[in-house]
Design a protein that fits this description.
Bound molecules: ligand LEDWP2DD
Pathway: Lipid metabolism; fatty acid beta-oxidation
Helix content: 40-55%
Shape: globular
Strand order of the largest sheet: 1-2-3-4-6-8-10
GO molecular function: delta(3)-delta(2)-enoyl-CoA isomerase activity
GO cellular component, one term: mitochondrial matrix
Family: Belongs to the enoyl-CoA hydratase/isomerase family.
Organism: Ursus maritimus (Polar bear)
Strand content: 5-15%
Length: 300
């Protein structure tokens, strides 16, 4: 897939892609790999390659909550692009290195009190990450080991298969309305594709965050397993998916997903403008302020 990363050169230059990860650089071999295979990545994305299996585990580590800041999105994009272009890899498992949190979704501080140019750049990066994960030629499995609201849920929904840890503290869903904002049409499309129109209609309007058993029942995840089995289950599922010839699976994936992606691709600029207009409204900024204050107060 020929997507341009489309971020300002400055943003990219500020990052140090493929910087060796402290600890990994000290020689921590990747799990399941033979001698000499080392983890790599960037400050916020740890990649554990298993070349023999053709699989890489991508661990998000943007503490405390893996919120999808512009820098983090950029690093995720660079990691994905690199893995996509490396013929060694046929599948990736996306998981979190932050205990109890898969991803808290979009970084609210990228949308609150920012100027329109920044919001536009941020939204372009959000679109880009979605397109890259959703249309990836690789098998993408989400090993969801923590709470996964809004943008975190979108990331999960963009995987080919989702395994959620069975912990009552974890929940997944598009909860935008609870923040006084709305899920964009392409978030909505992906949810409708996954759980059907009626269930999506209720979930979106009410901002449902589904705990594991409900998540499985509604079909927003494919499997719920004990927490200590999330990674091994993702690995077994990956083996099943990799048993299918790549070309047949990739063409089929494209057949199924392209119409949804095309809806955004045909109006990316308009979508950015809509986002910037919407997020810049005083009423929306006030809602975000209230929500951020609530998050602070929760701490006591
Ligand atoms: C006409 C209409 C046209 C429309 C056109 C289209 C318009 C498009 C509209 C806009 C679309 C936007 C889509 C948005 C998607 C999103 O993803 S929004 C984000 C949603 N996320 C959440 O609601 C999660 C919020 N966070 C939490 O609930 C909790 O933090 C947690 C994840 C459950 C973790 O709890 P806990 O471990 O107790 O940690 P906390 O103490 O709460 O948090 C630690 C610090 O992290 C900060 N933080 C948390 N989440 C975020 C976040 N998403 N972004 C930024 N920062 C976050 C939190 O404030 C704490 O900070 P400090 O107090 O400074 O430590």
């Amino acid at each position: 897939m020929a997507l341009t990363v489309g971020l300002r050169p400055l943003t990219r230059a500020l990052l140090r892609p493929w910087a060796r990860v402290p600890g990994a650089a000290l020689g921590r071999p990747a799990a399941g790999s033979g001698d000499g295979v080392r983890c790599f990545g960037s400050p916020r994305v740890l990649v554990e390659p298993d070349p023999a299996a053709g699989v890489a585990v991508m661990k998000m580590r943007n503490p405390p909550v893996n919120s999808l800041s512009l820098e983090f999105l950029t690093e995720l994009l660079i990691s994905l692009e690199k893995l996509e272009n490396d013929k060694t890899f046929r599948g990736i498992i996306i998981t979190s290195d932050c205990p109890g949190i898969f991803s808290a979704g979009l970084d609210l501080l990228e949308m609150y009190g920012r100027d329109p140019a920044h919001c536009a750049e941020y939204w372009k990066a959000v679109q880009e990450l979605w397109l890259r994960v959703y249309l990836s030629n690789l098998v993408v499995i989400g090993a969801i080991n923590g709470i996964s609201p809004a943008g975190g849920c979108l990331l999960s929904l963009s995987c080919d298969y989702r395994v959620l840890a069975n912990n009552p503290k974890y929940a997944i869903g598009l909860n935008e309305t609870l923040l006084g904002i709305i899920a964009p049409f392409w978030f909505k499309d992906v949810l409708v594709n996954t759980i059907g129109h009626r269930a999506a209609e209720r979930a979106l309007q009410l901002g449902f965050l589904f705990p594991p058993s409900d998540a499985l029942q509604v079909g927003i995840v494919d499997q719920v397993v004990p927490e200590d089995q999330v990674q091994s289950t993702a690995r077994s599922v990956m083996a099943q998916w990799l048993a299918i010839p790549d070309h047949a699976r990739q063409l089929t994936k494209n057949l199924v997903r392209k119409p949804t992606a095309d809806r955004l691709l045909q109006q990316r600029d308009a979508d950015i403008q809509n986002f910037v207009r919407f997020i810049s409204r005083d009423s929306i900024q006030k809602s975000l302020h209230v929500y951020l204050e609530k998050l602070k107060q929760k701490k006591g």
